[in-house]
Write a structure and sequence with these properties.
The complex is a heterodimer of chains A (about 400) and B (about 350). Chain A is an alpha/beta fold and about 400 residues long. Chain A has helices spanning about 20-30, 65-80, 105-115, 120-130, 130-140, 155-165, 185-190, 225-230, 260-270, 290-305, 315, 325-340, and strands at about 5-15, 20, 50, 90-95, 145-150, 175-180, 215, 215-225, 235-245, 280-285, 310, 340, 365, 370-375, 380-390. In chain A, the strands form three sheets. In chain A, strands 1, 2, 4, 5, 6, 8, 9, 10, 11, 14 and 15 form an eleven-stranded mixed β-sheet that branches. In chain A, strands 3-7 form a two-stranded parallel ribbon. In chain A, about 65% of the residues are buried. In chain B, about 60% of the residues are buried. Chain B has helices at about 15-25, 55-60, 65-85, 105-115, 125-130, 135-145, 160-170, 190-195, 285-290, 295-310; strands spanning about 1-10, 15, 30-35, 40-45, 95-100, 150-155, 175-185, 220-230, 235-245, 255-260, 280, 310, 330, 335-340, 350-355. Chain B has ten helices and 15 strands. Chain B has one domain (about 1-355): Peroxisomal Thiolase, Chain A, domain 1 (3-Layer(aba) Sandwich). Chain B is globular, with a radius of gyration of 19 Å. Classes of the chains: A alpha/beta (about 400), B alpha/beta (about 350). Strand 5 of chain A pairs antiparallel with strand 6 of chain B, so a sheet runs across the interface.
Chain lengths: ~400, ~350
């Protein structure tokens, strides 16, 4: 198998930046940052968030917001891939999430705690709502099925798992990415860690004060080239490599030397069979927290050099947790196709401790490859390399 | 790929020796657990007692970790040690942990924080431990493993999905070995849900061969396999195939059928289609309790049987349908074992273990 044998034939995305790629790219061009106060749940805190203001009506499932977001993105991706019927191939499903993996319904638990009993509606939704299982059953998928719960790298890792499945011929096509809703529990949790920004996030900025939470879904259709050829399909995009390594350092803090991130990038580039100089840009994890951006900036500079074009799109979407890797891989693929990346929203002043600065304005890109990175709780690090060929 | 080492932590203790003792000794009654808010109320469950872990070294390092993380670290460390491979910790080891419910007990603890103290006064430590991949994070930092690391979840066959991915990682050279684990916990809320949605075993005995109606006893525990392509110091067996859906070798001979029936599905009749009068059948869920990662314990029993060339008696032998059961423990030549998992949606997974 060569490094361009796994094609990306469909992209789907929904976030605060827009529903679908067209809306999203328009937001990027305008520099829109659609953050506001929380509207989805009552809270005494005032950290702004990036909510999806309107999930399309056909996808609104009561009590299953993450699944709703995922299904909206999946249908976009399938439509772009021209896949109305999946019965002709072995379809795998691999989606990352954080919120959908937990039974964290406060009303259910309050009732259980106070009265020793609670209606099981939310339990049923939870049991039916395992993202990958639910989607696989809806689509009658006959390939492998996994929901990845690697915290903030879940989406990137899900795409990496898909690559492994396809390379091992466990299936012909994979629906891969991530989805997460904005939820009360992580909102409180991230606040308790002291890393939520009272204003808008400013990834890699000297004066960054933390992250904004967001929500959304980003999904790719990954397909063996042989199948795509038979279908007469080509997007020109391919998934070239994936790397994942662990810091083995701390539950919530990245290794100061970026041990795992560095190793992940090296592994991803090696699988892609390319050198760092061939990478046109990096869509960084760039949360806007002090530690993440410092470590990530240093590692990216070390591997790609000081001239790297780099951005974080979290200034447009907030940190969408388990969805982030999926959303950002979709953005990276779309940017390769479009030939430009947006300004790194929120960045104004260089941090002298970080040897790279993100792009300040919409920029044309050179190079046939993009890299998207994720760093996560637990010291997980993941990177994917996306390439653009000349078509089939 | 081969199973090179195993780490097992269940209600019957830590380590392969404890697991072998359990297989030899057979069924024991579960613990009676008090039901919060229900004076005198009790339910049965098979719980892991961490106080019985003799070597406290790792537990001292894990003082701030929750129980899911502790049992995961203990089982993972045990699997590495059990492999007997010199300097195994210096190899590039990937980790895939499968869990159905993750750190739900800690999640509810965090919800307690929100309800009791409000949004702004919750514990960051509790939140950090409630994240699904906290357990693996503790495994990596405690054992200093820096390979690829995943936590995955499903409600059907999560451990088997992890095994399938491990094979791909090894084939693609993403790591030298893979620690594949399954871990899940009992908690009061889960017990409450099980009471309402499933049928508790009134006498504490899971009856894997009743098929319908079924009965369950919640369990908890962790199993890790160290997998690799080579044979290591003393391998248990080959793990020759993990197949979802159709199985081309369905009619091929095997020395034992292992079934994952444990009462988590209200109807487990699907297993009957896999069983024949020519092959004995066993199910070891009654030793450890009902768990969505329970298939991992059956596979651990299968691997041990292949190493020992000993078939262990199935622990609960109520047999209303006349299944050919492995009724006694005896030494015998074993070449292959077929492990079968079915759910109530007609989905299935079959795993083959073979003698090396």
């Amino acid at each position: 198998m060569t490094t361009d044998d796994i094609l990306i034939t469909g992209l789907g995305v929904i976030s605060a930046a827009g529903n679908g790629l067209a809306e999203t790219l328009a937001s990027f061009e305008r520099g829109s940052r659609n953050a506001a106060a929380v509207s989805l749940f009552p809270t005494t805190m005032h950290y702004p968030v990036f909510e999806v203001r309107q999930i399309p009506r056909d996808y609104q499932l009561e009590g299953q917001r993450t699944l709703s977001l995922a299904l909206a993105a999946v249908d976009q991706a399938l439509e772009e891939a021209g896949l109305a019927d999946l019965s002709h191939c072995r379809v795998g499903v691999c989606l990352g999430t954080t919120v959908a993996s937990q039974l964290n319904d406060l009303d259910f638990y309050r009732s259980y705690r106070e009265r020793g009993e609670a209606p099981l509606t939310s339990v049923d939704r939870y049991l039916e709502g395992n993202l990958a299982e639910n989607l696989a059953r809806r689509l009658k998928a006959r390939g492998p099925v996994l929901t990845v719960v690697n915290a903030c790298s879940s989406g990137t890792d899900a795409i990496g798992v898909a690559l492994s499945w396809l390379k091992s011929d466990l299936c012909d096509l994979v629906i891969a990415g991530g989805a997460d809703e904005l939820n009360h529990v992580p909102y409180c949790g991230f606040a308790s860690l002291g890393i939520l920004n009272p204003g808008l996030c400013a990834p890699f900025d000297r004066d960054r004060q933390g992250l904004n939470l967001g929500e959304g879904a980003g999904v790719m259709i990954l397909e063996k080239k042989s199948l795509a050829l038979r279908r007469g399909k080509s997007a020109g995009l391919f998934l070239a490599g994936y790397g994942s390594m662990c810091d083995a350092y701390h539950l919530t803090a990245p290794s100061p030397e970026g041990v795992g991130l560095k190793a992940s990038l090296v592994a991803a580039l090696a699988e892609a069979g390319i050198g760092a100089a061939q990478v046109g840009f990096v869509n960084a994890h760039g949360t806007g927290t002090h530690d993440n951006d410092l470590v990530e900036g240093k590692v990216l500079a070390e591997i790609f050099g000081p001239g790297l074009k780099m951005l974080s799109t979290k200034g447009f979407t907030g940190h969408t947790l388990g969805a982030a890797g999926g959303i950002e891989a979709v953005f990276s693929a779309a940017a390769l196709r479009e030939g430009w990346i947006p300004a790194s929203a929120g960045f104004a002043t260089a941090d002298q401790a970080i040897p790279l600065t993100p792009v300040r304005e919409q920029s044309a890109i050179d190079g046939a490859y993009a890299v998207s990175t994720s760093l996560a709780f637990g010291g997980n690090n993941a990177a994917v390399v996306i390439g653009q060929g000349v078509g089939l | 790929m081969n199973i090179l080492g195993m780490g097992i932590l269940s209600t019957r203790g830590l380590g392969v020796a404890a697991w072998e003792n359990a297989l030899n000794e057979g069924w024991r009654a579960p613990s009676a657990i008090g039901i919060p808010g229900e004076p005198g109320g009790q339910r049965s469950a098979y719980l892991v007692d961490l106080d019985t872990v003799a070597d406290r070294t790792l537990l001292k390092k894990l003082r701030r970790a929750d129980k899911l993380s502790k049992i995961s670290v203990l089982a993972a460390a045990d699997a590495l040690a059990d492999s007997g491979i010199p300097e195994i910790g210096r190899k590039k080891i990937g980790i895939i942990l499968a869990t159905a419910f993750g750190a739900h007990v800690t999640t509810f603890g965090f919800l307690d924080d929100i309800l009791d103290y409000g949004d702004e006064q919750v514990s960051p430590t509790t939140f950090s431990n409630s994240v699904h991949n906290a357990a693996v994070s503790y495994v990596t930092s405690t054992l200093n493993l820096q390979g690829p690391t995943l936590t995955v979840t499903r409600f059907s066959f999560p451990f088997h999905c992890a095994l399938q991915l491990a094979q791909a990682w090894l084939d693609q050279g993403r790591c030298d070995h893979v620690l594949v684990g399954g871990a899940d916990l009992y908690g009061d809320v889960l017990g409450y849900v099980c009471d309402l949605k499933l049928t508790p075993a009134r006498d504490g005995r899971i009856q894997p061969f009743s098929f319908q109606p079924t009965c369950q006893v919640p369990g908890e525990g962790a199993v890790f396999f160290l997998l690799g392509r080579g044979e290591g110091a003393a391998p248990y067996c080959r793990l020759t195939a993990v197949r979802f859906g159709e199985d081309a070798d369905r009619d091929a001979p095997a020395d034992l059928n292992l079934i994952d029936a444990d009462g988590i599905s209200p109807d487990e009749s699907a297993y009957r289609a896999w069983l024949s009068q020519g092959t004995p059948t066993a199910a070891y869920a009654p030793l450890v309790g009902s768990m969505m990662i329970g298939g991992a314990f059956n596979l651990a029993a299968g691997a041990l049987m292949l190493r020992r060339q000993t078939l262990f008696a199935t622990p609960v032998q109520d047999n209303p349908h006349g299944v050919k059961l492995q009724t006694e423990t005896r030494q015998v030549s074993i070449a292959s074992i077929r492990s079968i998992g079915c759910n109530c949606l007609g989905e299935q997974v079959v795993t083959y273990l073979g003698r090396i």
